[in-house]
């Protein structure tokens, strides 16, 4: 692009543009390395008068794309320059019919986005706005964001007024503008689009308008009528609203388009499948109250919403589904697996535990899949240690049942490749004990002779010693420190009677209690870990959990002891310092949680 022209458009200098184009009219056709014309640049910078002058001199620039396929209208739609956008929209509406091979409002870029797609996408950023972290700027930034969102809303209204047919156009992600607005919770934009009664189930587009160079208009061909609406990977706008967790938008869409609740995506998933996956209990409740039949509708893998919830460990969704439709638990997928099988297979131990509490039928708990495998068989086959332990604790589980190959869960554990490790050996013993109790008068199934029962060394076994040593060391240190604090109490002792001087103080009493809790908790850990060698498997599956919890309790108690000790000794002389120390102590657990989140409660045991 000519440097003088580039400078003129950057400054919005209309007079300079006129002088340059009068000398060389072809100058307007020059482009940047990214194929941006002067109209692209002017639209981005918001120079409305410059845009008007350029289009008056060469209107073909209105439909000239850059390397991203963006026309100037795409560029303007991304900005908040409503004056430029309004001007380009008005020019696009008046586009000559003879050049209808390219309608600016329907032109798509390389992502197959129309200008309306771009406007809605950027409205998301204006609405959700990156709220500033600095409190001083918060009010001004919010005010600015609201103002920019209102400008964007006005732009979207003008685009819809100009051509409402674009509401049914799909981009590369198979999203209409309504899909985007519904997913991102743009309630006002959803309202605006719904006014134009959009097609919520678009049909397969015929000959999409690609952003190519203008050619001679050709005779339009008759589009073929699609036999049925497309089933998209993104589903309907209702699917997107559910995935986004926007209940108000879901209610709005159900009010305006009630038939959407029965529609599925290209994999057969209904909106209830989406809500179950995301564990949105309120959404599940809303959808089932509108249409209880959704609980029984399966996708192409014959998975019901309950099975999807079990696969994702969505306990809240499971509870709502079973509350509305308790018999949904009987459904199975194309492999004959019910919710218990799915929870085992997905390592969703929490969901398995929840389902075992809610399911009353012994038949469902022991129901085999198409291969004859019960949930216990599947857990044994996949070496799901925690799942097997949960199932074995339930007296309704029958460990002696055989699958289609004539194998019990115990035999499947024996058949694991590489032999059994310490966990699997422990499970094998438990299975044998249960079999002995339940079929004491029958012959056991034949054991697998080709497998070794010798303890195998696994990565978890190698870490065992270091984990046990670390916990023991930490517990011993806490016990030592707290024991010493017992004899060096804050405030000291009286010279005459040798009694603590501050026993009357409430904070002193809290110090004594918290210090005692910390010491006793750590001593219990030390004592239990000394016996870790006796039964390493039982230690890993049980004692390690309690040891971890007791260490956390001891650490919290130490923080309380520190805060109260400082408070009781200096509060009378320097109260503000005592308060500062207490605030610092109180912030410590929250800082740890902010850094580690759920990992604070992580226990290194197998699933």
Automatic annotation (TrEMBL):
Keyword Repeat: yes
GO terms under cellular component: plasma membrane
Keywords linked to the UniProt accession: ANK repeat, Membrane, Repeat, Transmembrane, Transmembrane helix
Transmembrane intervals: 470-490, 510-530, 550-570, 576-596
Ranges of the ANK repeats in the UniProt entry: 68-90, 233-265, 267-299, 371-404
Boundaries of every PGG domain copy: 462-568
Biased composition (Low complexity): 209-218
Annotated region (Disordered), positions in chain: 200-229
Membrane topology: Multi-pass membrane protein
InterPro entries tied to this protein: Ankyrin_rpt, Ankyrin_rpt-contain_sf, PGG_dom
Location in or out of the cell: Membrane
PROSITE patterns registered for this protein in UniProt: ANK_REP_REGION, ANK_REPEAT
The protein's name in its UniProt record: PGG domain-containing protein
Native source species: Dioscorea zingiberensis
């Amino acid at each position: 692009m000519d440097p003088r022209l580039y400078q003129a458009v950057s400054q919005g200098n209309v007079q300079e543009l006129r002088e340059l184009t009068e000398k060389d009219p072809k100058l307007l056709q020059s482009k940047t390395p990214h194929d941006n014309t002067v109209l692209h640049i002017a639209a981005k910078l918001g120079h409305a008068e410059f845009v008007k002058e350029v289009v008056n001199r060469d209107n073909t620039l209105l439909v000239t794309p850059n390397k991203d396929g963006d026309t100037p209208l795409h560029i303007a739609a991304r900005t908040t320059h409503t004056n430029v956008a309004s001007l380009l929209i008005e020019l696009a509406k008046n586009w000559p019919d003879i050049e209808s091979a390219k309608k600016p409002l329907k032109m798509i870029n390389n992502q197959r986005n129309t200008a309306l797609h771009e406007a809605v996408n950027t409205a998301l950023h204006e609405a959700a706005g990156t709220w500033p972290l600095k409190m001083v700027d918060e009010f001004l930034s919010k005010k600015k964001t609201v103002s920019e969102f209102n400008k964007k809303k006005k732009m979207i209204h003008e685009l819809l007024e100009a051509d409402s047919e674009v509401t049914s156009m799909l981009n590369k992600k198979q999203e209409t503008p309504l899909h985007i607005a519904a997913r991102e919770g743009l309630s006002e934009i959803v309202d605006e689009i719904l006014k134009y009664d959009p097609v919520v189930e678009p049909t397969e587009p015929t000959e999409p308008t690609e952003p190519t160079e203008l050619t001679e208009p050709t005779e339009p061909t008759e589009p073929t009528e699609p036999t049925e609406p497309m089933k998209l990977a993104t589903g309907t706008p209702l699917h997107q609203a559910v995935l986004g967790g926007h209940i108000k938008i879901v209610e709005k869409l159900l009010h305006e388009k009630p038939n959407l609740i029965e529609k599925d995506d290209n994999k057969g998933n209904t909106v209830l499948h989406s809500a179950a996956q995301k564990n949105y209990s309120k959404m599940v409740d809303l959808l089932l109250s509108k249409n209880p039949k959704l609980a029984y509708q399966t996708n192409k893998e014959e998975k019901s919403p309950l099975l999807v919830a079990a696969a994702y460990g969505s306990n809240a969704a499971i509870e709502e589904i079973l509350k509305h439709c308790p018999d949904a638990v009987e459904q199975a997928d194309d492999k004959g697996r019910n919710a218990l099988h799915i929870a085992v297979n997905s390592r969703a131990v929490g969901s398995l535990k929840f389902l075992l509490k809610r399911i009353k039928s012994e038949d469902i708990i022991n129901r085999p899949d198409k291969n004859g495998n019960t949930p216990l068989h599947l857990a044994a086959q996949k070496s799901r240690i925690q799942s097997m332990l949960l199932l074995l604790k339930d007296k309704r589980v029958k460990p002696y049942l055989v699958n289609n190959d004539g194998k019990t869960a115990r035999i499947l554990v024996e058949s694991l490749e590489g032999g059994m490790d310490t966990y699997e050996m422990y499970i094998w013993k438990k299975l044998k004990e249960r079999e002995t109790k339940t079929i004491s008068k029958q012959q056991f199934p034949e054991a697998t002779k080709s497998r070794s029962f010798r303890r195998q060394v696994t990565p978890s076994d190698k870490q065992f010693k270091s984990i046990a040593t670390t916990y023991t060391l930490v517990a011993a240190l806490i016990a030592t420190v707290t024991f010493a604090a017992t004899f060096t109490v804050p405030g000291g002792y009286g010279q005459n009677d040798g009694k603590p001087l501050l026993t009357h103080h409430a904070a002193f009493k809290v110090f004594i209690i918290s210090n005692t809790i910390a010491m006793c908790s750590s001593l219990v850990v030390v004592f239990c870990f000394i016996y870790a060698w006796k039964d390493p498997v039982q230690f890993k599956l049980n004692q390690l959990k309690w040891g971890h919890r007791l260490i956390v309790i001891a650490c919290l108690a130490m923080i309380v002891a520190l805060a109260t000790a400082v408070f009781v000794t200096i509060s009378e002389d320097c109260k503000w310092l005592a308060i500062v120390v207490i605030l610092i102590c109180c912030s410590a657990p929250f800082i740890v949680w902010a850094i580690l989140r759920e990992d604070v409660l992580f226990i290194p045991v197998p699933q």
